[in-house]
Task: structure prediction
Amino acid sequence: MESKTFVMGDIHGGYKALLQCLERSNFNKEEDTLIQLGDICDGWSEVYECVEELLTIKNLIAIRGNHDDWFRTWLKFDQHPISWNQGGYGTLNSYCINLDKQLWGADKQGYITSLLVTDIPLNHIDFFLSKQKPYYIDSSNRLFVHGGFNRHFPINDEIYNGEDILIWDRDLWLAALSYGTIEQGDLAVRPAFKMYDKFKEVFIGHTTTMNWKTDKPMNAANIWNLDTGCGFKGKLTIMNVDTKEYYQSDDLQELYINEKGRN
Result:
């Protein structure tokens, strides 16, 4: 059987959704490739389990998201940049439960916990510090990035496309949404969506499609948005990058009935 390449949107601790997507797509952990677009952290209560599952995939390409970067900062400097807000309780609670640590409560600086950086398994530390990439370009000149990039400059330009841009940008997606046809005489012409690097396609997460009242992946110009609201009340999506056939989990609120996620 020929191997396949899949891309997956933001997971946000939704381990049950991750398992459903792998099962429903018939993903082969030994043969197929999974490109995960980042934001494994923050939201539902099973971030630890998500990392463990992803580490079982032989051909995994992991992209760093902004929520992963916050956890990464804590792992590097023992300080969380936003005091575990923005869904971080789910990440912290997941590690406390799995590592038998205490999470007592909250104060103005964040949560009161016995969890230390030195408690985190080394393979998890390596995952967030080393294995996740800022972006990935495949052999078909398709770009995979969490947020977006400044399309008027090379993707590897460290000034105009530094990692903060790659994990936070939303301008690329909004520009793609406004892209359309122009009238030239009697013809409606669709001009090329200009990029310095002429990527065949770009796959992003970060900006949930639920902002446009859909939990399905969206396409604009040559940009595919795979963040279908897994951190909120939407679904997790996995897509075959060649055929664009996609598979989704159940609604996350149905999988985690007694939790709020990032809501």
